[in-house]
Amino acid sequence: MEENDSKESKSPSLVMTIAAVAVLTLVAAAGGWLVGELLAPPPAEETAAAVEVPAGATGEEPLPKIATEANGIVELEPITTNLAYPSENWLRIVVALQFKGVPDVSMAEAIHQDIAAYLKTVSLQQIQGPRGFQYLRDDIQERVDLRSEGRVTKVMFRTFVIQ
C-alpha cells in the first residue's frame, strides 16, 4: 500500500513540474518578443520603384572614386607581407593618405615603401587586440608624419586583414 501512496504523490509533482516549465517557457517567449519589438526598429517598407540605382551600376557613368586629387586623398596600393613573428602569418593592409593641398605622388610612393618595410618588422603579438591595432595606427601615423614633414594630415586604414 505504501507503493501506491508514493506513486500517487509523485504524479501530481511531475504534472506540476511540466506545467511550471510550460508556463515559464511561454513567459520567456513573450518577454523575448516584447524586448525584440522594443529594441529592433521596424523594417523599412520599400518598393521596387523607391530603390534608386547608382549611376555607375547601369554602365552609364562611372562612380567617382573617393581618392582623388580634388579632395587631396591618395589611396596607396595594397601592401601584403608576412609578419616578423610568426612568419607564417600574413598581413594585408590598404591605406589612404590625406594631403594638405595638392597630393605628391612620389612622396606617397615613398610612404608606401616605408610602411611596407615597417610592417615586416611587426610581430603578431604587437598588433593583437584593439590596443595593439591602435599602437600600429599610431606608429604608422608617426612614420608618415616624419616622412611627409607634415604634408599628410591623416592616414586612413581602408583594409586590415591578418591571415
Automatic annotation (TrEMBL):
The keyword Cell membrane applies. The chain crosses the membrane at residues 12-35. This is Flagellar protein FliL. Pfam families: FliL. Keywords: Cell inner membrane, Cell membrane, Cell projection, Chemotaxis, Cilium, Flagellar rotation, Flagellum, Membrane, Transmembrane, Transmembrane helix. Signal peptide: none annotated. Controls the rotational direction of flagella during chemotaxis. It comes from Sinorhizobium saheli. It comes from the Bacteria. It is found in: Cell inner membrane; Cell membrane. Belongs to the FliL family. GO terms for cellular component: bacterial-type flagellum basal body; plasma membrane. Its main location: membrane. It is a single-pass membrane protein. InterPro entries: FliL. One of its GO terms (biological process) is chemotaxis.
